Amino acid sequence: MASVLRQLAVLVCALSCAALSAAADKKDPPSAANALGYGVMLYEYFQRNHFEALREYSIAEKRQELYGHGSYPKLLEGGISLAFGMDRKAESVFDELLNGSYSEGVQNQAWFYLGKIAYQRSNYERSREVLGEIGPALPNKLQNEYRSLVSQLALRYEDFNHAEAAFERIEANSPFKPYTTFNIGAAYQKRFIRSRYAGAENNDWYPATLKLDEAAELALRFDRAGATGEQGDDEFKSLADRALLAAGYALLQGERYDAAIDRFKRVRLQGPYAAQAMLGYGWAEVEQERFTEALTPWEHLIDQSLISPAVQEAYVGIPYVYEKLGAKSKALSGFEFAADKYQQELRSIENAVQNLRSANMIDLFVVEQDQGFVDWVAAHDNLVLNPQSPYLTELLAGHEFQAALTDLRDLYALQQNLESWQRKVATFQFALESRHAAREAVRVGDKQQLLEQIDSLQAVRSDAYERLSLIESNSDAVSLLPREKQRTARKSQALASDARALIAAQGGDPQGSGMQDLVNKAQWAEFLAGVALWDAHEEYSKNAWQIRKDLQIIDDMLEQMEQRKNNIEHILSEQLDVKRYTERITEASKKLEDTLAANQQGIDIAQQALSDLAIAKLSQHYRSIQAHLAQTRLAITRLYDINAAELDSAMESGAENVNEVAP
Amino acid sequence: MKIARQNNTLLASTLILLLGIVYAVTAVAQDQSGPSVSDNVQDLKQRVIELNRDLFILEEELLFPANTQVAVFLSMDVGEFFQLDAVNLKIDGKEVSNYLYTEKQVDALFRGGIQRLHIGNVRSGEHEITAFFTGRGPQGRDYRRAVSHTFTKGGDIKYLELQIRDSIQLHQPALTVKEWQ
Fold first, then answer.
1. Least packed by Cβ within 10 Å: which of A53, A307, A449, B81?
2. From B38, which residue of chain A is nearest by alpha-carbon distance?
3. In the predicted model, is pLDDT for residue A501 greater than 80?
4. Is residue B156 included in any domain, yes or no?
5. pLDDT at residue number A575
6. Does residue B165 fall inside a structural domain?
């Protein structure tokens, strides 16, 4: 099942959805996220950080921050889950969208993705059934992919008419077009090969060639137009190569050798299909008995690694050609050379299997572990493989193995994530205790201090208001004077009053002895008091305003302090449930521990599965080499037999001659 | 006769090779067995996502309680007049974030994503947030602009969104700060 799902994502998504949806996304105008949580999820999703996007989705969902976007968040959750290799989760999300509360368009999209998942699981009956539920309201952006999927499904049942009809409805500018036509061509070719093995008459090589040629042409047209896919800039060049290669072999089987050579020659030499093309090229020449011409591509091939089946075959093909050319000695040494090479290769495989059995798979294949999660859909061809294991790198670069490796890498990324949380959670209890201590400090310190300050300020304010009110009601302007002037005024009044009292005590005769001086002083003091009173009345309004202003400042300060007091009381009123938080931290720690243990178990299982898969692949390769070696040894024996027979014949012939000349 | 047989054998292996080419694009493995490594990995992924969610919320509650939390987000609407390179964020004159953007991140913002740029704590009362944006402006020229905003922190979480928008009239980017309630 693992390989199915992975291949599904690689096939269906890589061939179709991812490339198309990414292209469509680019063209769509940016949408404003109405809720921050949804926007944060989109930010991760658009960077293809699927794990982070799903985490953000989960947070936003819990905080009810996904409002205002209709069914898009749910559809996105399904899509991201699928892209992150969680097809079961995706399936449950899409099922949820079919509960009757969503529009027909949304339900159609859900049916479509469910059909795709079923197809990816090779459950073609279910896929057909589900896709049959789709009504006319499927969004335009999915139409081409849907038609491609319908075509693929029809091919599973060898319903070529239906497949062709679906293909015809795919828009010309859709990247699904070249892939779908390739798949139709490939299906014809498979049927042809099966018939050939069964000994039945069949001419499917011809429609296969037509469709594969068309696929190559379409792919090259996309490439020239600058289209790039999820599998990189060379995606359409690579598809064209694959189509040309398949067309070449179809023509080879149809005995159209020159046409086959034409297709093989058009396959890029630097592409991944060059070796198979060169092999086919050689066979097309051999079939026309142009043996010398066959040697050119095959001799080029044997400079390459024996991991490639094409190279393995070229090793035995070259001496075969020499034999056909009558160069038996060269043929013999060629077969012997091939046998040596095959034996070396068998030893390399044995060593590789030993290494696989004893090594940590992830160390063997993946150099960089800190890259986080792998883009499950797009990255299968892009994993970093340990350069010290080139043998494995080349042999195991196939989709199935890469998908298993991606799973293992994801598990390691999960482990890193969990370990990072484990370190953080260890500080949570400390943070909780610090927060609790800070709250206590506020409660017993800050709040108390603030309350005292407020009380004191309020007392000052009340006193000041009372005094101002009294001054105003008594029109006591002097009391509003600055302190110095107030003292002078009050002192002058007192002096005048004292002087008048003395004068009165001495009979009030101003002509009396010393009285004139006392009268003068009294008059001067009265004058000074009068001036002070004059000044006080002059400045009364200004002084009263200044005092009111000061009182306003005190009021403002009091208001701020009251607000601060309220804030503190608000903070203190929200219960910091230390016990509950401690429980949550303990629970989280336990869950982390359990999940890490489960993850480690998952890593062990995935390692074993990967190791088994690698060993199975190597064993397959081993058997293939063994078959070539057996074939080669037979050829060597046969050539020695021929040589021996020829030698006997020559010796007999020589003996007769000797007899003839002998006396 | 022997040669003819050998030729057939070689061609047969070529056919097998050809099947490989064809199946490489169209075939899906026929493995239909029960729970597998992949199922197990899927379960673990789901478990870890849920655990991450709970831990994230717990962390926020503990380290950034609502009465002190301020969260700053960044969004971009259209963004044709401005190619963002970096954002430097200050709260009350103190640098709290200095973020350099990759092409992928800018693209994610351009397509409607919102970045959680900063999450921190401030006391209740008035504060000033200042964001300095650097990048490429109209006609690809170096561009540096700042936006300031004063906000009052109360008892609830304060969400602020730095917005980069295009001003069609001015042919310039317009930078604003939005307070979320």
1. A449
2. A2
3. yes
4. yes
5. 65
6. yes
Which of A28-37, A81-90, A357-366 is predicted with the least confidence, judged by mean pLDDT? A28-37
Sort strands B94-100 and B83-91 into parallel, antiparallel or unpaired: antiparallel
Q: Which residues of A touch B153 (CB under 8 A)?
A: none
* pLDDT over threshold 90, residue A63: no
Contact of A384 with A366, CB cutoff 8 Å: yes
Q: How far apart are CA A216 and CA A242, in angstroms?
A: 8
* Residues ≥6 apart with Cβ < 8 Å to A592: A418, A421, A422, A425, B51, B55
Q: Which domain holds residue B160?
A: 65-180
Q: Shortest CA distance to A599 belongs to which of A409, A426, A423?
A: A409
Sign of CA dihedral A177, A181, A182, A183: positive
User: Which token pair is A247?
Assistant: 């067309």
How far is it, in rounded angstroms, from Cα B168 to Cα B81?
Answer: 9
How confident is the model over A20-45, as a mean pLDDT? 61
Q: Do B48 and A246 touch (CB under 8 A)?
A: no
Residue A279: the pLDDT is 95
Gap between the terminal Cα atoms of chain A: 85
Whether residue B51 contacts residue A584, with contact meaning beta carbons closer than 8 Å, is answered with no
Secondary structure (DSSP) of A149-189: HHHHHHHHTT-HHHHHHHHHTS-TT-THHHHHHHHHHHHHH
ipTM here? 0.86
A436-446 tens-digit pLDDT: 887 777 777 77
- Three-state secondary structure call for residue B120: strand
Residue B48 lies in a domain: no
- In angstroms, the CA A371 to CA A112 distance is 33
Instruction: Provide the CATH number for the domain around residue B137.
Output: 2.60.40
Mutate which of B19, B23, B32, B42 to test chain A, going by most A C-beta atoms within 10 A?
A: B42
Residues of A in contact with B7 (CB under 8 A): 286, 320
| Complete DSSP assignment for A383-407 | ----TT-HHHHHHT-SHHHHHHHHH
Instruction: Give the mean pLDDT of B44-56.
Output: 96
Residues of B in contact with A121 (CB under 8 A): 32
Residues 347-376 on A with a CB inside 8 Å of B are none
The answer to the question of residue B19 being in a domain is no
- Structural domains of chain A in order of their starting residue, each with its CATH number: 1-174 (1.25.40.10), 195-290+297-301 (no CATH), 432-579 (no CATH)
Q: Which two tokens stand for residue A172?
A: 């010309």
What whole-number distance in Å separates Cα of residue A663 and Cα of residue A199? 63
Q: Is residue B96 within a helix (H) or strand (E), and if so which, with residue range?
A: strand B94-100
Q: A328-358 and A309-324 helices cross at what angle (nearest 10)?
A: 170
**B61 against A476, higher pLDDT:** B61
Q: How far off is chain A from B39, nearest CA to CA, in Å? A: 7
